[in-house]
Design a protein that fits this description.
The protein is mainly α. The chain has eight helices and no strands. Helix 4 packs antiparallel against helix 8. The protein is globular and about 55 Å long.
Length: 184
């Protein structure tokens, strides 16, 4: 029994299973798709900000499963982001290319951990996270300079996400600026 997936221009339809011989090309496409958050990172202006938008639907999706699921999904996302960023860097020979935004996605998901799902939380987290990621104050700047490879691409965004989360946890516990959690 034979299957034919892609014969290419120089192959025939006669014969058993024929797989595309360019497995590396398929892997490269997947890495690019994940690294750029489905192409959002290729936006001509502010790719980090545009790429962060990809994280917005992930937050309620992760929260839907409860806080333990959110933490597990976030941990998996962070590991995937590090691996994909490393693979993208290896393929392109460039450190932290601007089109790689999976690190922004992971950082924003961290920024929203244990916060209420209100429009105020999303707006405040988005604004603070993007500001910290763009300005890179201490300790984000140190992490950005010192850590290399895929971990280095993701680590500064994780620190920006943690700092954003700490600021918003203070606001959440001390004020009513972030509104009330919508209970479905």
């Amino acid at each position: 029994m034979g299957f034919l997936f892609d014969t290419g221009p120089n192959q025939t339809n006669d014969g058993p299973l024929v797989l595309r011989g360019d497995k590396a090309l398929d892997q490269s496409r997947w890495v690019s798709l994940l690294a750029t958050a489905g192409g959002l990172g290729k936006a001509p202006k502010a790719p980090g900000t545009v790429g962060t938008l990809a994280a917005l639907p992930l937050v309620p999706l992760f929260a839907w499963g409860g806080e333990y699921f959110y933490m597990l999904a976030t941990a998996i996302l962070v590991v995937v982001a590090i691996v994909v960023a490393q693979m993208y860097e290896t393929q392109h020979g460039d450190h932290d290319p601007k089109e790689v935004v999976i690190d922004e996605v992971a950082g924003f998901v961290v920024a929203m951990l244990w916060l209420p799902l209100t429009w105020q939380s999303f707006v405040a987290a988005f604004a603070i996270f993007r500001l910290l990621d763009a300005v890179k104050p201490f300790p984000i700047s140190v992490v950005d300079r010192k850590v290399q490879g895929g971990l280095g691409v993701v680590a500064d965004d994780l620190v920006a996400g943690i700092l954003t989360n700490v600021l918003l946890q203070i606001a959440y516990t001390k004020t009513d600026w972030l509104g009330q959690q919508l209970v479905l």
